[in-house]
Design goal:
- Helix 12 packs across helix 13.
- The termini are far apart.
- By secondary structure, the protein is α+β, with helices and mostly antiparallel strands.
Length: 352
Amino acid sequence: MDLFYELIQMSLGRREFLSRTPSSQEWSALYKESERQAILGVILLGLERLPDNQRPPKELLLNWIGIGEVIRQHNKLVNKRCRELIKLLTESNERYCLLKGQGNAMMYVDPCSRNAGDIDVWLDGGKKKIVEFVYSLFPDINVQYHHMDFPIFRDVEVEVHFFPSFCYNKIHNRRLQQYFMEHSVEQFGHQVKWNDSEEMICVPTLSFYLVFQLSHMMRHFFTQGIGLRHAIDYYYLLSQNITVSEKKETVCVMKRCGMYKFLCALMWIEKEIFGLRMNLDIAPVNEKAGKMVLQEMMAGGNFGKNYGHNKGDILYVYSKQMLYRLRFIKEFPSEPLWRPVALVWDYIKKRV
């Protein structure tokens, strides 16, 4: 996998050439791994920087460029839908904050190189008010713990969040929700220019992003899995100008919410695999935990889609996910042990 990691570093501007020229078979494997990790568009930036004698075979390169254009066009579609969604929310007097997705893409060197997914938007006003708003348009939508589907578009999925994320550990989750609530006013009022245009869009502050994105990654890591796309999102986040006070504040929150060790593991990936050079003082690296997280990212691919434990009926999926989580108990005991408790707790609470 060394060539694959070198190619990622090329794409992030951390290398000028590969240590050796890949063979045709190796280039095919590099393409497949980039596809599994949902970073074909990002890697394409690295291919453009490669010397001519190290580039992929012409047929593969042309196919890669074609996929890159598909990713670019899909980003434009999602951006268009974001604008339409924001207009709808604004006209409905709903205060919003765009989470993940196109907000993350704004930090990329080329925002349209990132594989766009659905649109996640956090609304102000609390769960009851938000549910009433969604039901006024779509009365048959299921209410989940922290969000609801908002099927306003046929071609792009939208999720409306009551709060950005959560922990399975109920003690840590209470502290995390308190943090979200205490900083909500600032997030709903934090507007920035969208991709160097004059349009303004509401996205989280950098310090809030650090906590929220780490929480999101942790939760998915201990359920279905995450891939390198999430880690690259965090790389670009850590490449921003984050102040010392912002770092101190976020680290304090991460420690109180049981996320600090996962941050240290992720920092090893950001530094040793991606070549991060900024904000390395936010946390020390944990090589052992970092290698474990990286191994799972590589094995599962984007959102763990390569794992079999995410397919099948609900009981099968839950049982396989439980076995999957057991391997992390030694390094990260809190979330894997609390996950079954949280499922039972929330089931009973919802019925009662």
